Amino acid sequence: MQTEALELARRYRSVSYDREDGTWFYIEKLAMPPGWNKQYVDILIDIPWGNPGYPSVAPQWFWTDQDLATSSGRSIQHFFTRGSNLADRQHLDKGWGHFCVHINQWRPAGGRNWQQGHSLISYLDLIKTIFRDRKRLTR
Amino acid sequence: MGHYIVNGEVIDVRDERPTARDLKRHGNSVSTDWVMATMANGEVVKLEDHDPLPANAVNYATVVPYEYGMSSLSGGEYGH
Fold it and tell me: Which of A80, A104, A132 lies nearest to residue B66, judging by beta carbons?
């Protein structure tokens, strides 16, 4: 994850991650496309851990500012701001909301060839696409 | 043939009448990735591999295939 963090820091400037267990990755001030109530949001990615964990297993969902809304005030589908699971409630209590997005064909390359397969960079590209896909999220 | 913005990077594509598959090949994307075009009106359109790149696209993304889901969190609700 350290190698990926270096590349993500080059692209997104302010990033941090769980250096002990590799269970989360944080990006500060991701620029938002037009149509949202914020110019920047923070992103928190839960990293699958255990055996198998990341990168064999794709991140399941991501968290962002709980007060994210469209600039027109329309509701956002697949964006959740409440939960009952204790671990998730801790995130929610800290002001995070999460998008529920499932990945279907995760193909990491791993090792030195990690950039030829899916990685956290791929996942960030997906997050940015989801934010550009505002019209589908607000149908 | 031309330059295209893919995942924020400029990609030089030299094929005549390039397709989504060409964009993935030049951008070193995973072959199963989807190509998503952001159109001038803000709409995001998924292209099939054989689709030519639309002339009025602003930029592109190659992304791992995905679907929107319902949270497994009981008690979750749509935001806002």
Answer: A104
Give the architecture-level CATH label for domain B2-63: Roll (3.10)
Please tell me the distance in Å from A55's CA to the nearest CA on chain B.
Answer: 14
Above 0.95 for ipTM, yes or no? no
Structural domain spans, chain B: 2-63
Q: Do B68 and A100 count as a contact with CB atoms less than 8 A apart?
A: yes
Query: Which of the 8 DSSP states describes residue A127?
Result: H
Contact between chains at A80 and B79 (C-beta distance less than 8 A)? yes
What string of DSSP letters covers A19-67?
TTT--EEEEEEEEPPTTBS-SEEEEEEEPP-SSS-TTTS---EEEEETT
Contact between A23 and A53 under an 8 Å Cβ cutoff? The reply is: no
DSSP A114: G
Map out the domains of chain A as residue ranges: 2-137
Over residues A89-139, the pLDDT tens digits come to 788 888 999 998 999 999 999 788 888 999 999 999 999 999 999 888 886
